[in-house]
Amino acid sequence: MTQDIPHSAEATARANGIDIVYDTFGDPSAPAILLIMGLGAQMITWDEEFCAQLASYGYWVIRYDNRDIGLSTKFDNAGTVNILEIVAATQSGQSVEAPYNLRDMADDAVGLLDALEIQIGHVVGASMGGMIAQLVAIHYPSRVSTLTSIMSSTGEPDLPPPSDEALQILLVPPPTDRDGYIEASSKAWNYLNGPRYQSDENRLLTRIGNAYDRGLCPDGVNRQLAATITSEGRREALQSVAIPTLVIHGDADPLVPVEGGIDTAEAIPGAKKLIIEGMGHSLPDELWHHILEAIVEHISQR
Q1: How far apart are CA 63 and CA 299, in angstroms?
Q2: 288 pLDDT above the threshold of 70
Q3: Rounded to 5°, angle at Cα 117 from 70 and 4
Q4: Cβ(287)–Cβ(193) under 8 Å?
Q5: Boundaries of domain holding 290
């Protein structure tokens, strides 16, 4: 029963020179699973029930706020970035400096492992979190037991772009008043879910409201987006990854088209691939059992 799974209070760790807020599910003596969330998404986007179910298989599950989001350190001193200028410069082949890059965020993840005295763990990343997880596997292979990359990509420029509607969600910030933020974010998630699967509406609205109450940082989201845009593609580097890898992707993903997941699986030697028909850019409740079983089957082999 997942209600019996221990769930810690939120805590703060000093990692890679910044403060990272995290919480945990399960027994700290069990093998660790580090969950890394995506662009602009707080750690609570990994739903509590999803985390508890994962921990119920006998793992210590850790989720955390990336830098510049939620309750972790904000890089306000870096100022505001102009995403449209960065996109234009990148497309014209110019070199662009962002306040930080995805490698820095991978260093954050390993810093959190250090702070929690985890020598090696299973690393699971979603969307931008999958990109960060890939970089952890590339640069810190001794710290990663298995890698799971969900609805993510190698970041190569020759891959299909997001749909026009998904681009609007990326580039147009939601309202800053609570009701407006909840309404806009709910519409965005329902679109990203894809046509077949929808999240439980009460669960979704509660999560969005909780994210608002924990604190918004629109400039931080833009800095994360700048890090994603300006970071180099990983296709070549992933060819050296010898860590057992599972790639999960929906074939109806409007934000990171399924070709990104396929490219990731093809780049990593021996990677397993799970393409879920009708799944968009989310982890809908209906699919939790399917996704959790795939992850557990993958990591239990190590």
Answers
A1: 17
A2: yes
A3: 65
A4: no
A5: 2-299
- With 0.90 as the threshold, say if the pTM is over it: yes
- State the CB neighbour count (10 A cutoff) for residue 90: 15
Structure tokens at 264: 């990731």
- Angle (CA) 208 160 255, round 5°: 5
pLDDT at 1: 60
Handedness of CA 111, 116, 122, 128 (dihedral sign): negative
What distance in Å separates the CA atoms of residue 33 and residue 115, rounded to the nearest whole number?
15
The CA R_g of the chain, rounded to the nearest whole Å, is 18
Evaluate whether 5 touches 15 at the Cβ level (below 8 Å).
no
Task: Kindly report, residue by residue over 234-243, the tens digit of the pLDDT.
Answer: 999 999 999 9
CA distance 83 to 171: 8
Amino acid identity of 6? Answer: P
Q: How confident is the model over 110-130, as pLDDT tens digits?
A: 999 999 999 999 999 999 999
Beta strand spans in the chain (E): 11-15, 18-25, 32-36, 60-64, 121-126, 144-150, 245-250, 272-276
Contact 81, 48 (CB under 8 A): no
Q: What is the pLDDT of residue 50?
A: 97
- Cα angle 67-253-93, degrees, rounded to a multiple of 5: 65
Domain count of the fold of the chain:
1
- Nearest-5° Cα angle at 19, 18 to 21: 145
What is the biggest distance separating any 2 CA atoms in the chain, rounded to whole angstroms?
54
Q: What is the pLDDT of residue 9?
A: 98
Identify the CATH number of the domain in which residue 276 sits. Answer: 3.40.50.1820
Answer whether 153's CB lies under 8 Å from 261's CB: yes
Q: Does residue 31 surpass a pLDDT of 80?
A: yes
